[in-house]
Amino acid sequence: MIQDFSATAECAAALDARDALAGYKQQFLFPQHNGENSIYFCGNSLGLQPKSVRAAIDVELNSWQNLGVNGYMKGDNPWLFYADYCKPALVKLVGAAGVHEVTVMNALTVNLHLMLLSFYRPTASRYKIMLEAGAFPSDQYAVETQVLMHQLQEQDAIIEIAPRNGEKLLRTEDIIAAINEHGHSLALTIFSGMNYYTGQLFDMAAITKVAHEAGALAGFDLAHVAGNVPVKLHDWNVDFAVWCSYKYLNSGPGAVGGAFVHEKHTNTQTPRLGGWWGNDEKTRFKMEKGFIPKPDASGWNMSTSQVFNTVCLKASLEIFEQAGIHHLRQKSILLTQWLEFLLQKITNIGFEIITPTNPEERGAQLSLYFKERGRDIFNAMSDNGIIVDYREPGVIRVAPAPLYCSFSDVFKFYSILKEI
Ligand SMILES: *Cc1c(COP(=O)(O)O)cnc(C)c1O
Question: At which positions is pyridoxal 5'-phosphate bound (predicted)?
Fold first, then answer.
């Protein structure tokens, strides 16, 4: 396919004409620049608002208005079961065996901590926790503070895997070698599914397999994966995963987060912190002593469903259900290849694409590394109606999300960049 590309507006139009998902763009609201839609390549940070969200919020406002507390059992979407409405779609996005392996609750870092409490259970001999160097800061802080909570030494207990000297990406073989090296003392690997800075998608199946062979567990932070790249958490035997819903899942700032717990761990024996929403509904309202977690991933829920935090996810997932994550992924691979093809034609500004070239090792995002003047180039893009983001040191992240970005948008981005 890539050899058919030519750097022309006609080629972009032809690609759009062949795109079966092109119509989904109409379902989203775009920030405006000089009276026109911005070029929005920032869905890896905050996805755009689906037009359907406003009405969906209105439904719950009306239930609240008309039913008051009876909204928990009545109305269009009884709130008691609100988390459940999102589960069938999430099962497909993360490759769970069924709705029993997924839940929605809280937000990402909170869920990461809850999962670490259950699955990072250091012993005297097996206490190390491994992640990639340069992980998202919140994940670094979570791991650091968990280690301190267990009264372990950071330098001893945290193993960070960095790229080789002069390289920007992690090699799977180096991750595997490190897991084997620390195998006897390793309790858990907690890599991100995709690194936020480089856009590198890790080989989660391989990491999980080797971690298990070493006697450790494997969890993942899927913040940059959920809604971007379909994964197979159940089949890969991943122990747990967490993600947020405001990036590729388009559920708005502060949206409710998600979690996957493999069915082998969802039994009531797995230690955790409990709250009434993780308890069986049958006994939840008896107000009796004795926490009995639901025997599924929602056994980690604690608090009453955050309806207004979840309604946007519910509305957004309906679009994913219609479009299909595998169709979206197909489009995304082509769209990002098109972006890469055009970027390679740019000679007026110096940068390096640090994201892997292989589509199997990346999602929608390309990270452009500028040795110098990255911030200036970023500002010039903003002045021209391009919304991307800048991450120190020196990287502009460009992520055309396939639900609402077209091949012509990518061409427009290229045309503007060429003139900067
Ligand atoms: C976006 C992101 C976060 C943010 O966590 P919140 O708790 O939702 O603020 C954490 N980790 C990773 C890897 C992210 O990409």
Answer: 108-109, 136-139, 221, 224, 246, 276, 304
Known binding residue 103? Answer is no
E strands, 15-88, in order: 28-29, 32-33, 36-37, 39-40, 49-50
pLDDT tens digits, one per residue of 87-98: 999 999 999 999
d(CA 329, CA 308) in angstroms, rounded, equals 29
What is the CA angle 53-79-274, rounded to 5?
115
> Ligand 1: distance of its center to the CA of 398 in Å?
18
The confidence score (pLDDT) of residue 4 equals 87
Closest ligand 1 atom number to CA of residue 221: 13
182 assigned binding-site residue:
no
Calculate the alpha carbon distances from 249 to 64, 256, 261, 381 in Å: 26, 11, 19, 25
Report the alpha-carbon distance of residue 365 to residue 363 in Å, rounded: 6
User: With a cut of 50, which residues of the chain have pLDDT below it?
Assistant: none
- Tell me how far the alpha carbon of residue 384 lies from the centroid of ligand 1, in angstroms: 28
DSSP bridge partners of 397: 367, 389
Distances (CA, A) of 133 to 121, 236, 244: 22, 23, 21
Q: In sequence order, what DSSP letters do the residues of 115-156 get, joined into one string?
A: HHHHH----SS--EEEEETT--HHHHHHHHHHHHHTT--HHH
Strands 49-50 and 28-29 turn out to be antiparallel
The verdict on pTM exceeding 0.90 is yes
Closest by CA to 247, choosing from 266, 221, 268, 272, is 221
The neighbouring-strand residues paired with 219 are: 190, 240
Report whether 372 contacts 353 (CB < 8 A). no
> Which domains, ranges and CATH numbers included, belong to the chain?
2-51+324-419 (3.90.1150.10), 77-321 (3.40.640.10)
Rounded CA-CA distance 58/64 in Å is 10
DSSP letter for each residue of 322-337: HH-HHHHHHHHHHHHH
**Angle, CA 42 vertex, CA 135 and CA 247 arms, to 5°:** 60
Q: What is the distance in A from the centroid of ligand 1 to the CA of 257?
A: 10
Angle made by CA atoms 167, 169, 175, in degrees to the nearest 5: 110
Cβ contacts of 74 within 8 Å, gap of 6 or more:
63, 67
Q: Are 402 and 369 within 8 A, CB to CB?
A: no
